Automatic annotation (TrEMBL):
It comes from the Bacteria. Its cofactor is K(+); NH4(+). It holds the Pfam family Pan_kinase. It comes from Commensalibacter nepenthis. Pathway: Cofactor biosynthesis; coenzyme A biosynthesis; CoA from (R)-pantothenate: step 1/5. SUPFAM superfamilies: Actin-like ATPase domain. Keywords: ATP-binding, Coenzyme A biosynthesis, Cytoplasm, Kinase, Metal-binding, Nucleotide-binding, Potassium, Transferase. This is Type III pantothenate kinase.
Amino acid sequence: MLLVIDVGNTNIVFAVHDGQDWLGTWRVATTANRTSDEYAATLIVLMERQNIPVHKISRAIIGTVVPPVLYQLLTLCRVWFSVDPIVASSSLDWGFEIQTDNPQEVGVDRLLNGMAAHQLYGGPLVVVDLGTATTFDIIDKDGNYCGGVISPGLTLSLEALHSAAARLPRIGFGRPQSVIGKETIGAMKSGIYWGYIGLIEGIIERIRKEHSVSEITVIGTGGLARLLAEGTSIFKEINAELTLEGLRLLANRNSSGNKK
């Protein structure tokens, strides 16, 4: 069985795949000062509740955009599961070209999303990841990573609006009933929600023109993707598991990460 660990800025996702299906997926908060023993105490209990024996884990892969937690997760895999995990990086065999000036600077989550999306949907395509940052990643018809766009995430934008304007309250995110707000909170929600819809549609249109394609598939992922998809028809599909699937595909292309 393959243990997959996807480290994001907000959550760490642990998942186990048996070669046919995902047997379990669990999320814990990303905390830099958590020890490997604390990760083990949580993960092993969750696995046992779904009848997944620890000794059945024979391979592991880690993808992280938070370097401070990597050492403890490497120790978790080596001490508690007796596997030396693969760590996703641009130096591995991805099966496609990373066509950027500095491939090592590209976040591995973006490469993983592109890899999985091309496998599932074909290309050319754009993956829009609505997480801490909102990223657009462009994949050509052959699966090569062509580059991307990075803009502030929705949560960051809401916080910035509140922090920079003393009379504007801190608000949650949601789809407003109308575009024109009749009071302050309604106007703020409208500006954020429809502003991001405009940002997504506008950037996709510019990518189409710059990439010289009339049609390009758009796949959404990230925690807020389904809510934003209610306001636009630009997404072909929302897939919350793209990064996990990318890690599984990358592990299968690379031979390390096996039982010691």
